[in-house]
Amino acid sequence: MIVDTKAYGSVEVDERQSITIPSGLYGFESLERFILMDARQRPFYWLQSLDVQEVAFVLIDPKLIRPDYDANIDSADFEALGLEDSNDEHFLQFSIVTIPEDRQGMTANLQGPIIINKESRLGRQCISQNDSWNVRHNILEEMAAGKDAC
Would you say residue 149 has pLDDT above 60? Predict the structure, then answer.
Protein backbone atom coordinates (compact mmCIF):
# COMPACT_ATOMS: atom_id res chain seq x y z
CA MET A 1 0.00 0.00 0.00
CA ILE A 2 1.11 3.59 -0.63
CA VAL A 3 1.20 5.90 2.39
CA ASP A 4 1.78 9.66 2.46
CA THR A 5 4.21 10.26 5.31
CA LYS A 6 5.37 13.35 7.13
CA ALA A 7 9.05 12.43 6.89
CA TYR A 8 9.46 10.64 3.56
CA GLY A 9 6.56 11.70 1.32
CA SER A 10 4.75 8.87 -0.48
CA VAL A 11 6.21 5.46 0.32
CA GLU A 12 5.16 1.90 -0.29
CA VAL A 13 4.68 -0.14 2.88
CA ASP A 14 3.55 -3.64 3.66
CA GLU A 15 0.04 -3.82 5.11
CA ARG A 16 1.53 -5.89 7.96
CA GLN A 17 3.10 -2.65 9.21
CA SER A 18 -0.34 -1.24 10.02
CA ILE A 19 -1.15 -0.81 13.69
CA THR A 20 -4.53 -0.01 15.22
CA ILE A 21 -4.52 1.92 18.48
CA PRO A 22 -8.23 1.94 19.41
CA SER A 23 -7.87 4.60 22.13
CA GLY A 24 -5.36 6.65 20.16
CA LEU A 25 -2.36 8.23 21.88
CA TYR A 26 -2.56 10.77 24.69
CA GLY A 27 -3.41 14.09 23.07
CA PHE A 28 -4.30 12.33 19.81
CA GLU A 29 -7.19 10.14 20.96
CA SER A 30 -9.10 10.44 17.67
CA LEU A 31 -6.25 8.96 15.62
CA GLU A 32 -6.41 5.16 15.62
CA ARG A 33 -4.73 3.97 12.42
CA PHE A 34 -0.95 4.02 12.06
CA ILE A 35 1.94 2.53 10.15
CA LEU A 36 5.07 1.45 12.03
CA MET A 37 8.15 2.06 9.88
CA ASP A 38 11.89 1.88 10.30
CA ALA A 39 13.41 5.36 10.29
CA ARG A 40 16.39 6.05 8.07
CA GLN A 41 18.35 6.92 11.21
CA ARG A 42 18.86 3.86 13.39
CA PRO A 43 17.79 3.00 16.10
CA PHE A 44 14.61 5.01 15.55
CA TYR A 45 11.20 4.14 14.12
CA TRP A 46 8.30 6.20 12.78
CA LEU A 47 4.72 5.78 13.88
CA GLN A 48 2.89 7.50 11.05
CA SER A 49 -0.80 8.34 11.34
CA LEU A 50 -2.89 7.09 8.43
CA ASP A 51 -5.62 9.57 9.33
CA VAL A 52 -3.54 12.80 9.34
CA GLN A 53 -0.36 12.88 7.27
CA GLU A 54 1.18 15.65 9.38
CA VAL A 55 1.03 13.51 12.53
CA ALA A 56 3.94 11.13 13.05
CA PHE A 57 5.96 10.14 16.08
CA VAL A 58 9.60 9.15 16.38
CA LEU A 59 9.94 6.00 18.50
CA ILE A 60 12.77 4.08 20.12
CA ASP A 61 13.01 0.80 22.00
CA PRO A 62 13.34 1.95 25.64
CA LYS A 63 15.68 -0.95 26.42
CA LEU A 64 18.27 0.72 24.17
CA ILE A 65 18.22 3.72 26.49
CA ARG A 66 17.84 1.86 29.77
CA PRO A 67 18.58 -1.88 29.64
CA ASP A 68 16.91 -2.15 33.07
CA TYR A 69 13.66 -0.67 31.72
CA ASP A 70 10.51 -2.36 32.96
CA ALA A 71 7.40 -0.27 32.46
CA ASN A 72 5.44 -2.31 34.99
CA ILE A 73 2.15 -1.69 33.24
CA ASP A 74 -1.24 -2.78 34.48
CA SER A 75 -2.33 -6.33 33.65
CA ALA A 76 -5.53 -4.88 32.12
CA ASP A 77 -3.37 -3.26 29.43
CA PHE A 78 -1.82 -6.61 28.54
CA GLU A 79 -5.26 -8.23 28.54
CA ALA A 80 -6.70 -5.54 26.24
CA LEU A 81 -3.93 -6.31 23.74
CA GLY A 82 -4.25 -10.08 24.05
CA LEU A 83 -0.80 -10.42 25.62
CA GLU A 84 0.21 -12.50 28.63
CA ASP A 85 2.91 -10.12 29.87
CA SER A 86 6.12 -8.42 28.67
CA ASN A 87 7.67 -11.85 28.00
CA ASP A 88 4.96 -12.75 25.47
CA GLU A 89 6.50 -13.55 22.07
CA HIS A 90 4.19 -11.00 20.40
CA PHE A 91 5.10 -8.13 22.77
CA LEU A 92 6.73 -4.99 21.37
CA GLN A 93 7.32 -1.75 23.27
CA PHE A 94 8.40 1.70 22.20
CA SER A 95 8.90 5.12 23.73
CA ILE A 96 7.99 8.37 22.01
CA VAL A 97 11.02 10.55 21.30
CA THR A 98 11.06 14.34 21.36
CA ILE A 99 13.79 15.89 19.25
CA PRO A 100 14.44 19.60 19.91
CA GLU A 101 16.55 21.84 17.67
CA ASP A 102 19.58 21.02 19.84
CA ARG A 103 19.66 17.25 19.40
CA GLN A 104 21.71 16.90 22.60
CA GLY A 105 18.41 17.52 24.42
CA MET A 106 16.61 14.59 22.74
CA THR A 107 14.32 12.85 25.24
CA ALA A 108 12.22 9.69 25.46
CA ASN A 109 8.94 9.25 27.30
CA LEU A 110 9.52 6.20 29.50
CA GLN A 111 6.40 6.89 31.56
CA GLY A 112 3.98 6.35 28.67
CA PRO A 113 5.24 3.43 26.57
CA ILE A 114 3.44 2.27 23.45
CA ILE A 115 2.81 -1.46 23.69
CA ILE A 116 1.99 -3.45 20.54
CA ASN A 117 0.85 -7.01 19.97
CA LYS A 118 2.80 -7.74 16.79
CA GLU A 119 0.52 -10.64 15.85
CA SER A 120 -2.83 -8.83 16.11
CA ARG A 121 -1.22 -5.44 15.30
CA LEU A 122 -3.15 -3.83 18.15
CA GLY A 123 -1.44 -1.12 20.17
CA ARG A 124 -2.02 0.95 23.25
CA GLN A 125 -0.25 3.76 25.03
CA CYS A 126 0.08 2.72 28.64
CA ILE A 127 1.14 4.41 31.86
CA SER A 128 4.06 2.96 33.74
CA GLN A 129 3.36 2.13 37.36
CA ASN A 130 7.09 2.45 38.09
CA ASP A 131 7.84 5.86 39.65
CA SER A 132 11.41 5.73 38.25
CA TRP A 133 10.20 6.62 34.77
CA ASN A 134 9.07 10.06 33.65
CA VAL A 135 8.12 11.70 30.36
CA ARG A 136 11.54 13.24 29.63
CA HIS A 137 14.61 11.02 29.90
CA ASN A 138 17.59 12.50 28.05
CA ILE A 139 18.52 9.77 25.57
CA LEU A 140 22.21 10.63 25.16
CA GLU A 141 22.77 11.05 28.90
CA GLU A 142 20.99 7.78 29.72
CA MET A 143 22.92 5.87 27.06
CA ALA A 144 26.24 7.34 28.25
CA ALA A 145 25.40 6.45 31.86
CA GLY A 146 24.59 2.91 30.76
CA LYS A 147 27.97 2.55 29.03
CA ASP A 148 29.75 3.92 32.10
CA ALA A 149 27.97 1.34 34.29
CA CYS A 150 29.28 -1.56 32.14
Answer: no
What is the distance between the alpha carbons of residues 102 and 115, in angstroms, rounded to a whole number? 28
CA 129 to chain CA centroid, nearest Å: 17
Bond prior to 22 in cis (omega within 30° of 0): no
Closest CA to 17 of 59, 79, 80, 67: 59
For the domain 2-143, what is the CATH code?
2.30.290.10
Alpha helices in 22-74 (DSSP H): 62-65
The string of pLDDT tens digits covering residues 66-125 is: 999 999 999 999 999 999 999 999 999 999 999 999 989 999 999 999 999 999 999 999
> pTM for this one?
0.92
Q: What is the pLDDT of residue 144?
A: 84
Beta bridge partners of 124: 115
What is the CB neighbour count within 10 angstroms for residue 46? 20
**Phi, then psi, of 92 in degrees rounded to 5:** -130, 145
